[in-house]
Specification:
The complex is a heterodimer of chains A (310) and B (508). With 310 residues, chain A is mainly alpha-helical. Helix content of chain A is 72%, strand content 2%. Chain A contains 13 helices and 2 strands. Chain A has a two-stranded antiparallel sheet with strand order 1-2. The longest helix of chain A has 28 residues. With 508 residues, chain B is α/β, with parallel strands linked by helices. Chain B folds into 3 domains: 236 residues, Rossmann fold; 158 residues, Rossmann fold (3-Layer(aba) Sandwich), CATH 3.40.50.300; 79 residues, no CATH class. Chain B is 33% helix and 24% strand. In chain B, strands 6-7-8-3-9-10 form a 6-stranded mixed beta sheet, with helices on both faces. In chain B, strands 15-16-17-13-18-19 form a 6-stranded mixed beta sheet, sandwiched between helices. A 4-stranded antiparallel beta sheet of chain B has the order 2-1-4-5, covered by helices on one side. In chain B, helix 14 packs parallel to helix 15. The longest helix of chain B has 16 residues. Chain B is globular, with a radius of gyration of 25 Å. Classes of the chains: A mainly alpha (310), B alpha/beta (508). Chains A and B meet through helix 8 and helix 9 of A and helix 2 of B. Bound molecules: adenosine-5'-diphosphate and magnesium ion. Magnesium ion binds next to helix 1 of chain B.
Chain lengths: 310, 508
């Protein structure tokens, strides 16, 4: 017991938020995508490609911010492929997403070896440092947890209300919901569901890309094979848990972030549990959550169904 | 000058001429009915006007100016509104959200932020003006179909439609709702709107329209003034021959087949949908269950069919096989929705036909399927039930609604059941197919089958039933002999007004 509570200090909560951030980017992207009716199980591969592109960008341009921008653009481009295959060609979205995951896996480990060479694969590149918000960071307890973070952490959490307003309080939000629930109804009032779906898919890729680039430039500072480690899939679980709502998605990401942080802490503190079990923790939690809420939640009605004009 | 004039509109689809040089015109303030059987080209003609597709030839004049819309947005901008046969509403959005969907003017200042309060106020104004009672904040999935239809009409009015097209608007409505809709349309016409009312029901068209244009096989069979025509002329124009209503011989009931006392059944949401109903059904008779949709008829038939649990009460099937498995063969079940539960649309005709008995001779053993026998039986069924199909190997989805229903009947009657549950057996069918189904049901009754007919169409109930039971909110409002009852009495009972005592003719 003693040991368990020893884990819970401000550092732990700060780590929770930091670890939730890449997930949150990807989850928000996934929400946007799925609400428009397109499943993107390729988030994982998209994040991986963006993590890699971010590292390349930061190294060759010499700035983490421009590297991050490269990652975002790469994410958008990868998602564009998914959009073309699944929206324009009307192919099965699961197959297309799986192809992107496989492509991301193979291509990223190939490119890192080609560009950085076998010996210097894990070259540390210009990366993000923690930013303390003036005054706020000095608050007791809350300061170190909330206001001594990467700049991108603030960006991610600010995107939650932004996306919420877009989805529930704007014309665009109605168009997105219509495209995902009943695309024929959308087109009967002059909305082009294909364009809405394209836009949402590409934006979703950009957001997943932000998550991937944050992983490499904010957390790891280099690129490693398979470094996304299933976070793209956990994001899909998070959006189901959050019922396709940005706020719900954020809560889910924080829970996963907490599980991830616990796993790191457990290893550091030297809990008497084999670390392999600790490593499993976030994934077991994902399964457990899906078992509890997965069956009950209902996604958009037209999700996964290609739309064709008649 | 008419508001709309369509001249010599022709539209072909691969292998079908859907519209063949059709002329059509509507005036302001006029309700103009477009009458025709299913597949006669009514929807196609209106889709051409609404910009959903381009006609191959012909021209359209709106207010004297030639138009040719390439998308519904152009049609909407020109003041045309269409209420589609299958509603174009987004279920999880609210009524206001559905109505402003896609409009750039959702906020007066042009920002993408929605101003739903102003929109709702205007919607309530329009609604009040034409008797379109609606709760603007309800989510559409919570609304009954009648209310959803009002949302569709309001959607068109909100976009300032001068010409309103309603595609088969009464197909989903109960008699009282139809009356209400007709009132709304009259009010709209009186305010100067032009209304195109699509239907395949003669009586209705006679009641609502000023003029009636009849389509048959894609061609205009004629345009007549409602005041100068009668149902038999319309029927001739529509079908190309006289329609003879089926003649019902008096029934000779035999042994009891179904015995129900104090039956209660819950619906999918766990609410009590059937509440203490009791009746009996004998060989060689048709018991009609009348009632507005959603008053427990579906749950009642499903409980009898053995696909829904009985909560309380007694449900006996004397003379039927006692085991649940074997009982499926003794009960034929024409389900109310042939797309959801009647057929597997992607399965071929022979697969659908053999669905209920694939594990038994002649179609197979518990392990093997005899595809040859199934196909042969299907070829025979295509013949005896005059199903219009090129062969047994096409998927059921290719058939028209009427032919799909014939396939369901062929399967359900094919096993020679003792009891037939026929729920909405002619919903969405044209005159010819309806007539056919009715004749089949009467013939089966004369052969001694016990038939429970559930229908929301009063005419159908009156034409076929020997006895009639009216359901309202899960209860039996009363049971009457078909020969001793008037439309009005049943109509009142369907609205829950007349009590069992007041309306009982004879209860056995
Ligand atoms: N998109 C389409 N593709 C091919 N055939 C069609 C299409 N739409 C309608 N048809 C055919 O055109 C004919 C007229 O159909 P429709 O206008 O829907 O009739 P109605 O509305 O009078 O029932 C039918 O034979 C139908 O099968
Ligand atoms: Mg039609």
């Amino acid at each position: 017991m003693e040991m368990f509570f020893g884990l819970l200090d401000p550092d732990y909560f700060a780590a929770t938020i930091r670890l939730a951030t890449p997930l949150l980017f990807a989850t928000l992207g996934g929400i946007l995508n799925e609400r428009a009716g397109i499943i993107n199980i390729g988030l994982e591969g998209t994040m991986l490609m963006a993590a890699l592109t971010g590292v390349f960008g930061a190294w060759f341009i010499g700035s983490p911010w421009l590297g991050f921008a490269c990652g975002v653009v790469a994410g958008a481009l990868v998602a564009w492929i998914h959009a073309f295959v699944s929206i324009s060609l009307g192919a099965n979205q699961i197959v297309s997403g799986t192809a992107i995951n496989l492509l991301g896996l193979g291509l990223s480990s190939f490119l890192i070896r080609i560009v950085f060479g076998l010996k210097e694969q894990q070259r540390v590149v210009p990366h993000f440092d923690l930013v303390s918000l003036p005054l706020l960071a000095d608050l007791p307890l809350l300061g170190p947890v909330l206001f001594h973070q990467h700049a991108l952490v603030y960006v991610a959490f600010l995107l939650v209300p932004v996306l919420w307003v877009i989805l529930y309080r704007t014309r665009w939000g109605l168009m997105i919901t219509a495209a995902g629930e009943h695309p024929h109804a959308a087109s009967s009032v002059g909305i082009d569901p294909l364009r809405v779906r394209y836009a949402c898919t590409v934006l979703s890729g950009a957001l997943a890309g932000a998550g991937g680039a944050f992983l490499s430039l904010g957390q790891l500072h280099f690129f490693q094979d398979e470094m996304v480690a299933g976070r793209g899939f956990i994001a899909l679980a998070a959006l189901i848990f959050g019922r396709w709502n940005p706020v719900g998605g954020m809560i889910a990401c924080l829970i996963f972030g907490a599980a991830d942080a616990l796993q790191f802490r457990g290893q550091a503190v030297g809990l008497a549990i084999p670390h392999q079990f600790m490593l499993m923790f976030p994934y077991v939690l994902t399964l457990a959550i899906l078992i509890v809420v997965g069956g009950k939640s209902q996604g958009p009605a037209a999700i996964g169904i290609p739309y064709r004009r008649n | 000058m008419p508001l709309l004039r369509m001249e010599r509109i022709t539209k072909t689809f691969p292998g079908v001429v859907a519209n063949d040089r059709v002329d059509f015109a509507v005036d302001r303030g006029e309700i103009h009915a477009l009458l025709g059987e299913n597949g006669s080209g009514k929807t196609t003609l209106m889709n051409a006007l609404y910009g959903l597709h381009r006609p191959d030839s012909g021209r359209m004049l709106l207010d004297g100016e030639e138009v040719g819309f390439t998308s519904p947005i152009d049609a909407i901008a020109a003041g045309i509104g269409m209420v589609h046969q299958h509603f174009m509403l987004v279920p999880p959005l609210t009524v206001v959200e559905n109505i402003v969907l896609g409009l750039k003017t959702a906020n007066a200042r042009g920002s993408p932020l929605l101003d739903l309060r102003t929109a709702a106020a205007r919607i309530r104004e329009l609604a009040a003006a034409h008797g379109l009672d609606i709760d603007t904040d309800a989510q559409v999935w919570q609304l009954p179909v009648g209310a959803q239809q009002r949302v569709e009409i309001l959607k068109a009015l909100y976009r300032d439609a001068d010409l309103l097209i309603l595609d088969e608007p009464t197909a989903v409505l109960a008699p009282s709702e139809v009356e209400h809709l007709i009132g709304v349309l009259r009010s709209l016409a009186a305010s100067g709107k032009a209304i195109i009312f699509i239907s395949h029901k003669l009586n209705e068209v006679m009641e609502v329209a000023d003029r009636i244009s009849v389509l048959r096989g894609g061609r205009l069979a004629g345009t007549v003034a409602a005041a100068e025509t009668d149902p038999s002329e319309l029927a001739r124009l529509m079908v190309g021959r006289d329609i003879v209503p089926p003649r019902r011989r008096s029934s000779r009931p035999g042994a009891p087949v179904l015995w129900i006392e104090d039956l209660s059944v819950r619906d999918d949401r766990g609410l009590r949908a059937v509440d203490g109903v009791g009746f009996s059904l004998f060989e060689g008779e048709i018991l009609g269950i009348a009632g507005v949709d959603g008053n427990g008829q579906k749950e009642l038939t499903e409980a009898i069919a053995g696909v829904r649990a009985v909560e309380d009460g007694r449900l006996d099937l004397p003379g039927l096989a006692p085991s649940r498995g074997a009982r499926f063969r003794d009960i034929g079940h024409v389900t109310e929705d042939r797309h959801q539960t009647g057929l597997l649309m992607s399965f071929r005709l022979w697969e659908n036909l053999a669905l209920k008995s694939s594990g038994r001779p002649p179609f197979g053993s518990p392990f093997w399927l005899r595809v040859g026998a199934m196909r042969d039986a299907t070829v025979r069924a295509i013949e005896t039930f005059s199903i219009k199909a090129p062969g047994p190997d096409i998927p059921a989805s290719v058939l028209s609604g009427g032919n799909q229903q014939k396939l369901v009947l062929a399967r359900e009657l094919g096993l020679g059941p003792k009891l037939l549950l026929a729920a909405q057996p002619t919903r969405g069918l044209d005159v010819g197919a309806t007539e056919y189904v009715h004749r089949r049901l009467l013939a089966a009754r004369d052969d001694g089958m016990a038939i429970l007919l559930v229908s929301t169409e009063l005419d159908e109930i009156l034409a076929l039933s020997d006895r009639i039971l009216v359901m309202y909110e899960g209860r039996a409002m009363g049971q009457v002999n078909a020969d001793e009852v008037t439309r009005e009495t049943i109509g009142l009972m369907m609205s829950g007004i007349a009590s069992r005592e007041a309306a009982t003719g004879s209860a056995s």
